[in-house]
Design goal:
- Five copies of one chain form a homopentamer.
- By secondary structure, chain A is mainly beta.
- Chain A has one domain: OB fold (Dihydrolipoamide Acetyltransferase, E2P).
- In chain A, 0% of the residues lie in helices and 50% in strands.
- The first copy, chain A, is elongated and about 45 Å long.
Chain lengths: 100, 100, 100, 100, 100
C-alpha cells in the first residue's frame, strides 16, 4: 500500500453501472515525510475519509477486496485512514500530535 | 484509476476473437491540471466516450470487471466519463463550466 | 494495452511445460508516433503476428485471457495486429496507406 | 519479490474491517547492495519481522496468498525474513556474518 | 516477460510456510543487448536455472501459474531458460554460438 492525502472529489454521471453510488476521491501520493510525490490516483473511498486526511490506498486486484468494491471495475481503493507512522523510532506523521 | 483524454481510435481486423466488436480508444493520460503526461494507453470503451472527452480508466485485472470486458484479454478500460473534479476546493476541470 | 512492433523471436528449449508450443516474440514498445520507447517485452503471440508488424499487447493477468494462454505462466500477450490509429483526426499509423 | 528493510510501523484505527489485527510495516525498498532506493511500501507483516530486519516482500494479488492476507484488500506483504544473498559468488548481505 | 540473468541465490529460514522448499534466485534484469538494466528481482526458480544463465521471468499473478508456484505468495518466477533471440534478423544472444 502507499500513503496518500485526500485533496478532492471527482464527479462522474456517466459511468459503468457497477460504480453507482461510489465516492471517487482525488488522492495525492505522499512519501514517508508527508511530501507530495507529484503522482495522483483517483480511488474509491471504502472508509469514509475526509478532505485533507492522510490515508492508505491499495491498487490492482487488491482494490476489489473490500465489501464495497467487490467485482467492481476499480483499481484503487482507500482502505485505511492513517493515525501515525514512525521511521527509525521517530514519528513522521501523527494525526493527533501529543502535547509535550 | 487515472485520468485520460480520448484523442482517437484504433482499428484492428486481426485480433483475438474475444475482442470482436469492442471499440479501442487512444487515451492520453492527463494529470490533475488536465495536462498531457506524455503517456498513453489503448483502452476498451465501456461507457460510450467520444473524442476529446475526459475520462477515467482502470487497468490490470480491474479492466475486466465491466460487463463488456469480462474474461477478455484487455488490460485497460474506460469506465467513466468525468464531469468535474476539484483539488483543495477549486475546480481543476469542469465539463460544463457554470456561467458566472 | 500498449503498442509494439514485433522485432524478433526468442527460442527456449527448457521451460515450464505449460509453455510448450507457444511462440515467444520480441516486442519493442512504441509510442503514438510509432517511435521506439526503449522498452521491450517478450510476449506470447496469440494472433499469428509477423516480423515488423505493429501490434497491441496486453500484460498482467489479462495476458492469460486468450484461449492460447489460459492458466499459463505468461504475463504478456500479443492480442491484436493493428491496421491503423488516429490522433486528433490525423492518422499516425496506417498499415495500408490509401493512395492519394 | 523485492528486498526491503523494516524501518517502522503504521497505526490506523479506522480501516476496512478485513484489516483488523494486521500489523502494518513501513518498508524501505533496498537494492542488491542493501542501499535504500528511495522507494517505500506499507506492507502487512506475515512472518513476524522486527524493526531493521531485511525482508522480502511480494506485491499485487500475490500479496493475498498468505493465510493471513487471503481475500484482504492488501497489495503488499512481507513474506520472508532474509538471512543472506550472494551475487557472483560474493555475499552482499549476511544477517549473521561468519567469524573469519 | 522480461529477460534476466541469474546472478545469485537468496536464503531465508523464516518465511511463509507456503514457500518451503522453493529456490529463490537473484535475477538481474537485462535488455535486448544482454546489458544489465540496473533493476533486479528475487524470483522463484521453476525450471532449474543455474548461475549466470540467461532466463525469462514472469511477474504478478502470472508468476503463480506454474505447478510449483500455484497459490503461493510469490510475484516473480523464472519460467524459461533462454537459448537465443534475434532482433531484426541478427542474433543478440546465443547460448551455444554456432561455429563459423
Amino acid at each position: 500500500m502507499l500513503l496518500g492525502k485526500i485533496v478532492g472529489t471527482l464527479v462522474s454521471n456517466r459511468k459503468d453501472p457497477k460504480l453507482e453510488g461510489m465516492k471517487l476521491m482525488v488522492v495525492q501520493q505522499i512519501d514517508l515525510d508527508c511530501q507530495d510525490t507529484g503522482k495522483y490516483v483517483i480511488a474509491v473511498d471504502a472508509v469514509g475519509a475526509g478532505i485533507q486526511e492522510v490515508i492508505l490506498y491499495a491498487t490492482g486486484s487488491s482494490a476489489r477486496q473490500t465489501v464495497l468494491t467487490e467485482n467492481k471495475p476499480v483499481d484503487a481503493v482507500v482502505m485505511a485512514i492513517v493515525d501515525e507512522w514512525e521511521v527509525d523510532g521517530v514519528f513522521r506523521y501523527q494525526k493527533y500530535p501529543e502535547s509535550q
